[in-house]
Amino acid sequence: MTRMKRVLRTIVTLLVVVCPLQLLLDRQLQQNLAVPTVTIQPVEHDLLMHQRVELICGGNKNDVSRTFGAEWSHLCEWKFLQSLLHHLHKGNDIFIVQIGAHVGFERNDPFANGAERLLFNLTQEEKRRVHWIFVEPSPPNYKRLVKNLQGRSDWCNLTSINAAVVPDGTISHAASMLFHSFSPDIDPETGYDSRSGKKLPAWITQVSGLSMASLLFNKGVFQRRGLNFSDYVVDTNVTAYAFSKLMEMATGGHVPHLVLIDTEGFDCNIILGISNLSNYLPPYLIFEERQCGDKRQPTFDYLGEMCYGVHAIPSTQNAIAVHSHNETCI
After folding, report:
1. Cα angle 230, 232, 237; round to 5
2. CB 175 within 8 A of CB 210
3. Going edge to edge, which strands form the sheet with 175-182?
4. β-strands 130-135, 94-99 pairing
5. How far is 307 from 143, CA to CA, in rounded Å?
6. pLDDT tens, position by position, 30-76
């Protein structure tokens, strides 16, 4: 019995020592196994971001311009995709507002081609957090725009607003304004005129506005085809909003990540009307600067005062403005 007691005592001693040690080792093992989920995630995110950026920005500047448009070569240069993907990774929503969208997704659209490639490579959850808002005042153009958006409903959250946009301070609330455009007899995507049976440039119905200036500039397009210009001008009352009110409606009060403006010569007026204290100054802005006339340089200067770097985009009518977060900026 004495020998048996010694054996039992030894076993108990071992249990007292070994069991806590094993528990400690198990805990340590669990901690070690948990480490990779913390350290690998950022690496995986960086790799995924790099792969997505490369899908659009991977070539040289000329390759990007040929494939997606010159505007995208500048968006790539100024890290637009990295910024957008970073915000999505943090769980934020992205708002892109396109003012003067016409019917959307056209060959000369400065954003659509690259955006399609980007959106097709996002997860469904990410797509739900990308809000692309199209603003178009012309009733026939807007009707076709809505149809085109419905056909691409799986891209992201695509929405539209049928309205014109005017500078802040012009009106204090929604107002009815006279809007000039060309006849709905002209197909807004092909330029085919069902009235005469003649083909006009596909872009002709993009020419419209609160002023007749851009329409009159293209009077010769009709005359060269033996058509009476005046017969094709249509005046319509449309709803207009000041820029900041439109942004509030479009984004629900969020700062847009990118704003595109194409209002046939009115772009610089809109920009010059934005307060430097506005809640809707986007990090990225693309606008048509070639038709701004004597307001072009003041617009570039004003954007510079608001800490934007402004760059005219060669071979296009557009400029890109990228906001700096320098502490000395407004």
Report:
1. 95
2. no
3. 164-166, 233-242, 175-182
4. parallel
5. 38
6. 444 333 333 335 556 788 899 999 999 998 999 999 999 999 999 99
